[in-house]
Amino acid sequence: MRRVAGVASIPSREIALHNMLHSMLHQVDLIYLALNNYSRIPEFAKNSKIKVFTFNRLNQGDAGKFFRAQEKDCYFFSCDDDIVYPHDYTATCIKNLNKAGPKVICTYGGRTFLKRPVRSYYNSPHRKYSLLGALKSRAEVEFPYSGVASFNTKYVTVRFEDFVIPNMADIWLAMIAKRRLYKCIAFPHPANWFRYQDQLMKGKPNIYDDCQVKGDKVQTKIVNTYRYLSMKG
Questions:
Q1: Does the pTM of the predicted model rise above 0.85?
Q2: Superfamily of segment(s) 2-223
Q3: For range 136-148, the mean pLDDT
Q4: Which of 112, 118, 149, 158 could join 142 via S-S bond, C-beta 3.0 to 4.6 A?
């Protein structure tokens, strides 16, 4: 079965994107690359394994990594441009998925809220499952990290149109799982299995910092509802 990855990027992260692609190219058959507001296609992205889509007027943010998530009969890996992936990443994901059962979204971190209703998506009490630190045992999570998510498209349907508001991919992926009765499982991994490109990310825009300024009222409202007409079936 083919291995297909999806990633979205913005121009300020071009160098980080290069490193991320280098870590994944040898592990997959195809990468769908969504370039948000790029004025050109980087030379390193001109590769037979990379299919580029440009979004200049319609910036879908991190949801762009799911632009082709409905690819038929494949293992799909949604990736973030600020992460360098381990050399055995896709093989490990497939092994985990095959052991866990068909209707599973594999991830390596996330959060589960301790109380309902949630007062703040970012600040309400929650159980956090580490991505960069070690995770010793597998755990079902409510909100999986979408940048390290994978699934078998034969059994799990994730549609680009389900990501209604940009830059909230973790939340929408959780909503999809709730709606369609998928399990989101964070699987064990050692510390530093993933490498966050922190030096390249200094001073660069990111979703968390943006929400600290604007607030998380929209995110919190969505987390407390789960009912969205766009998620039919």
A1: yes
A2: Spore Coat Polysaccharide Biosynthesis Protein SpsA; Chain A (3.90.550.10)
A3: 96
A4: 112
